[in-house]
């Protein structure tokens, strides 16, 4: 049984707390946040504190705060020598925690929103540890949370994070633009849902390169020109133009 | 019972033929293609011809060829006055078929690849007709193929097609880039699959704007800078930089 303290009350913390509460072999000792009250989206039975001096003893301290605040939070923490502190950030070097004896990283590779439940068991966890024995303990903890645990260096983790930005953040931004174009025409945005679903579903059968379709990959200049003409007065012209050029350029490498 | 001839042997034709063959109320009279033999991915029991003069009588002729070839194929067709000819293109004006008495559009809004099955009933069909009575017949046919049929003008249809390019082609290109970055590090590309799935799945619960996460929407300059530094020597730098700028710019409108 691992005893765990979570630091931070954002989206990652919210989903991680739920995963720990649902686990029979993990114990959420305490949640720490800056606010005076436990935010309402958390289970109200969680032991909460907002004063770092009141933080309880635990095997693991998982820092789930904005990347820019990790160093500051870490500096304020003073822990037992047997405890391990990890952060959950995709792009923060492990060494920001190096004032502690045992430290590492536990980065869950997923997009978290408060209003959408996730199954933590399906989420790959990318880990790193300050020593082999620390790494092994972080691996044990991660294996209790997820089916897929991957050991990586800080630089590799950042590259995984960058991949996630492309595959989630930028893809979703494409959906935002698509929705805005339809809304501007009073067309029901739901008609895109089967296409969005299929875009993801296809990748169970084909690689992204095999799944690529559309005017750019066909270098269909007539259609591309029609689209650019219709977009000319809009702020989407540049994104369409640039991504089309990139797809045409990359065609020979697919 | 509608009798249908399909013209063209690409991906749309492939999936449309299967949908018609699976329907009890539609009859695939013939498939026309330029090749001398019926391509192997089609059911070999289909009646096939490659000479336009041998084309049979039918209620509907559905042109599923590249946009650039629609006008030429249409010009070569001479049909009964009671027949209706439609094309299946997202961005081609209906009037390219205006040499015929009855014409229109039947555009299935989906991404088709030969190796991935689709359920045509779930695919929205965007239609247009040269007259009210023609439109009604196209609507009847479409309703037999799909649960969702939408009537649109040619310009609106092109805007729907543009939305589809963003939501599918450009999103999938983001997945290609993500995969290439991981491959360059010998990291198992499958670790992105849960994220790709969740990116689509989230939209059953949240709008794309609500679902947007990541460094750009948080305007997290430290992380963005780290990512740009790591991408500096790669061809992905520009796409990352441009899309991040666009997301930051659009932040106030989300």
**Any idea what the CATH superfamily of the largest domain in chain A is called?**
NAD(P)-binding Rossmann-like Domain
- What is the average of the pLDDT values of chain A? 95
Structural class of chain A: alpha/beta
Strand order of the largest sheet of chain A: 3-2-1-4-5-6-7-8
Q: Rg of chain A to the nearest angstrom?
A: 22 Å
Q: Quick one: overall form of chain A?
A: elongated
Order of helices and strands of chain A: EHEEEHEEEHEHHHHH
Low-confidence stretches of chain A: none
Largest interface, chains and sizes: A-B, 96 and 96 residues
CATH class of the largest domain in chain A, named: Alpha Beta
Largest sheet of chain A, in brief, is: 8 strands, mixed
Number of helices of chain A: 8
Portion of residues within helices of chain A: 25-40%
Report the sheet-strand fraction of chain A.
5-15%
Oligomeric organization of the protein chains: homodimer
CATH topology of the largest domain in chain A: Rossmann fold
Number of domains of chain A: 2
Describe the fold and architecture.
Two copies of one chain form a homodimer. By secondary structure, chain A is of the alpha/beta class. Chain A folds into two domains: 151 residues, NAD(P)-binding Rossmann-like Domain (Rossmann fold, 3-Layer(aba) Sandwich), CATH 3.40.50; 97 residues, N-(1-d-carboxylethyl)-l-norvaline Dehydrogenase, domain 2 (Orthogonal Bundle). In chain A, 40% of the residues lie in helices and 15% in strands. Chain A has an eight-stranded mixed β-sheet, sandwiched between helices. The longest helix of chain A is centred in the middle third of the chain and has 31 residues. Chain A is elongated and about 65 Å long. The first copy, chain A, starts with a strand and ends with a helix. The mean pLDDT of chain A is 95.
